[in-house]
Amino acid sequence: MKALLTLARAIDALNEQIGHALRWLVLLATLISAANALVRYGLGESSNAWLEIQWYLFGAIFLLGAGYTLKHNGHVRIDLIYGRLSERGRALVDLLGGLLFLLPFTLLMIWYAWPMFMASWQGNEMSPDSGGLLRWPVKLMIPAGFGLLALQGVAEIIKRIAVLAGVLTLAQEAPLEQM
């Protein structure tokens, strides 16, 4: 169990670092959006490349941030029943949800997105819009984002098994012997 919890902590640290890095992408996307608006409405000029980079950044923030969001328990769930369960009950619901829904869905998304990315990359796909950007970088975000979400799902499953084994608590998510 100790090795699995070490793996879970490593995955947590990876998604935490990515989540913190994505904060800078939010700032960058905001600055680009503001500059685009100023140039478009102030000077009457426009650039498809600058518009597309905004969309690419938003896609990267959303997709690459999903694992970080899961780590921080920020995904939508129905708390009507979940909130009334004991810690073991919540751990069991999370464990079953991860095993039966989260992991199969993320792996399926990676399975279907990877060939789309590869075709785009091998064909050097470009945006059909004048002055547009390469498409493969944004298509890579799909399997990468779902990969990070799947990894965080594995970490959460490990932690829920540890809770059920009495080694960890949901509130602290640190081994009991280290507290």
UniProtKB/TrEMBL annotation:
Signal peptide feature range: none
Species whose genome carries this gene: Sulfuriferula multivorans
Domain Tripartite ATP-independent periplasmic transporters DctQ component: 30-161
Localization annotation: Cell inner membrane
Similarity annotation: Belongs to the TRAP transporter small permease family.
GO molecular function: transmembrane transporter activity
This protein's name: TRAP transporter small permease protein
Subunit structure: The complex comprises the extracytoplasmic solute receptor protein and the two transmembrane proteins.
PANTHER family: 2,3-DIKETO-L-GULONATE TRAP TRANSPORTER SMALL PERMEASE PROTEIN YIAM (PTHR35011), SLL1102 PROTEIN (PTHR35011:SF4)
InterPro entries found in the cross-reference section: DctQ, TRAP_DctQ
Coiled-coil regions, chain positions: none
Keywords: Cell inner membrane, Cell membrane, Membrane, Transmembrane, Transmembrane helix, Transport
Domain of life: Bacteria
Membrane-related topology note: Multi-pass membrane protein
One GO CC term, this protein: plasma membrane
Transmembrane segments annotated in the record for this chain: 21-41, 53-70, 91-114, 134-151
UniProt cross-references to Pfam families, sorted A to Z: DctQ
